[in-house]
Amino acid sequence: MSISPERPIYSPFFSVMGATSAMVFSSMGAAYGTAKSGVGIAAMAIMKPELIMKSVVPVVMAGILAIYGVVVAVLIANTINKEGTTMAKDLTNMGAGLSVGLSAMAAGFAIGIVGDAGVRGTAQQPKLFVGMVLMLIFAEVLGLYGLITALVMMYA
Amino acid sequence: MSIKTGIASALTLLGTFISFYIVYALLTNQLFLLDIGWLLTAFGPIYWASLGIGLAMGLSVMGAAWGIWSTGASVMGGGVMVPRIYSKNLVSIIFCEAVAIYGIIVSIIMATGLKPYNGDDPATLAMNYESGYRVFGAGMITGFCNLFCGICVGIIGSSAALADAANDKLFVKVLVIEIFGSVLGLFGIILALILSSEAKFGEMK
């Protein structure tokens, strides 16, 4: 509620758009990752039902991306009303939200495609499981880069 | 006609409208039309709030519908040979329906908070505009998160139906993945309620 020449009346819009893009884009990535690897898991489960619980790894990693988005969105939502928030802070919040959102969306796409191919390959060749997990970790770290950038923007 | 042609033509139309708007503003000496600050404050907070509430309801229902038609088609198709699957796979349909219920809860909570205000005092104006933007953001979050959640749960539900048709012990295990998918809609409404709980319209007390 702090209005001043440094914070015109339309400035909270940018913070709110930051929170929105953080949540919306990261949930799109998480949804894609979950759906694409889920289809692969259901397909390979018909032949190898004992491998389902091991194959849930890409689904869990896609869910973590949504949590990155929630964290940044909640942090942004708590700064909108604080005293001493300037327009610079609001615009930075928008950048932070876009950073984590789009990174998590890209990471979710990667996790989905790698997870789908990985679980189908692991069903036929069990030695591929370690390779799939390594590739999923590299894909997950893309979302983490976005989260780190968002936190650095907001707090440093 | 492919999806790529559709996306390309939609983007071209959008670009044409935006460039005509810009050229009109430049040529008729009405440059305030291009001012982002003016655009954000021209209509008033009720416009933003109503847009948010409408998007929350509409996009949530679209997500639920997408999920239901994805799963339903697979259940009906698989059930031709294996009729026992339809009763268990109604659970997937209910997961999709829950997404629509999240949308209507958030829309009604936000819609009952809208009140008129007297636009003299700058502090009241600031509070109402901020609340309008908050409700817009909360509505967009709810709508889009529920849309993606519904699509995701629908795709997994259709795979679960086909796996269930092949081997009836598989349904409960694939349901675990569906639960991971439905958590996304929950995140959406949690964020929406966090944002919109601070939104106060009307006069300042």
From TrEMBL, chain A:
GO terms for molecular function: proton-transporting ATPase activity, rotational mechanism. Residues 17-76, 94-153 form the V-ATPase proteolipid subunit C-like domain. SUPFAM superfamilies: F1F0 ATP synthase subunit C (SSF81333). InterPro entries: ATPase_proteolipid_c-like_dom, ATPase_proteolipid_csu, ATPase_proteolipid_su_C_euk, F/V-ATP_Csub_sf. It comes from the Eukaryota. Its main location: membrane. It is a multi-pass membrane protein. The chain crosses the membrane at residues 12-35, 56-76, 96-116, 128-155. Keywords: Hydrogen ion transport, Ion transport, Membrane, Transmembrane, Transmembrane helix, Transport, Vacuole. It is found in: Membrane; Vacuole membrane. GO terms for cellular component: proton-transporting V-type ATPase, V0 domain; vacuolar membrane. V-ATPase is a heteromultimeric enzyme made up of two complexes: the ATP-hydrolytic V1 complex and the proton translocation V0 complex. The V1 complex consists of three catalytic AB heterodimers that form a heterohexamer, three peripheral stalks each consisting of EG heterodimers, one central rotor including subunits D and F, and the regulatory subunits C and H. The proton translocation complex V0 consists of the proton transport subunit a, a ring of proteolipid subunits c9c'', rotary subunit d, subunits e and f, and the accessory subunits. Belongs to the V-ATPase proteolipid subunit family. Proton-conducting pore forming of the V0 complex of vacuolar(H+)-ATPase (V-ATPase), a multisubunit enzyme composed of a peripheral complex (V1) that hydrolyzes ATP and a membrane integral complex (V0) that translocates protons. V-ATPase is responsible for acidifying and maintaining the pH of intracellular compartments and in some cell types, is targeted to the plasma membrane, where it is responsible for acidifying the extracellular environment. This is V-type proton ATPase proteolipid subunit.
TrEMBL record, chain B:
InterPro entries: ATPase_proteolipid_c-like_dom (IPR002379), ATPase_proteolipid_csu (IPR000245), F/V-ATP_Csub_sf (IPR035921). Residues 51-110, 136-195 form the V-ATPase proteolipid subunit C-like domain. It holds the Pfam family ATP-synt_C. It is found in: Cytoplasmic vesicle, Clathrin-coated vesicle membrane. The chain crosses the membrane at residues 7-27, 47-69, 90-113, 133-158, 170-195. It is a multi-pass membrane protein. The keyword Cytoplasm does not apply. Keywords: Hydrogen ion transport, Ion transport, Membrane, Transmembrane, Transmembrane helix, Transport. GO terms for molecular function: proton-transporting ATPase activity, rotational mechanism. One of its GO terms (cellular component) is clathrin-coated vesicle membrane. V-ATPase is a heteromultimeric enzyme made up of two complexes: the ATP-hydrolytic V1 complex and the proton translocation V0 complex. The V1 complex consists of three catalytic AB heterodimers that form a heterohexamer, three peripheral stalks each consisting of EG heterodimers, one central rotor including subunits D and F, and the regulatory subunits C and H. The proton translocation complex V0 consists of the proton transport subunit a, a ring of proteolipid subunits c9c'', rotary subunit d, subunits e and f, and the accessory subunits ATP6AP1/Ac45 and ATP6AP2/PRR. Interacts with IFITM3. Belongs to the V-ATPase proteolipid subunit family. PANTHER family: V-TYPE PROTON ATPASE PROTEOLIPID SUBUNIT (PTHR10263). Proton-conducting pore forming of the V0 complex of vacuolar(H+)-ATPase (V-ATPase), a multisubunit enzyme composed of a peripheral complex (V1) that hydrolyzes ATP and a membrane integral complex (V0) that translocates protons. V-ATPase is responsible for acidifying and maintaining the pH of intracellular compartments and in some cell types, is targeted to the plasma membrane, where it is responsible for acidifying the extracellular environment. This is V-type proton ATPase 21 kDa proteolipid subunit c''. It comes from Oikopleura dioica (Tunicate).
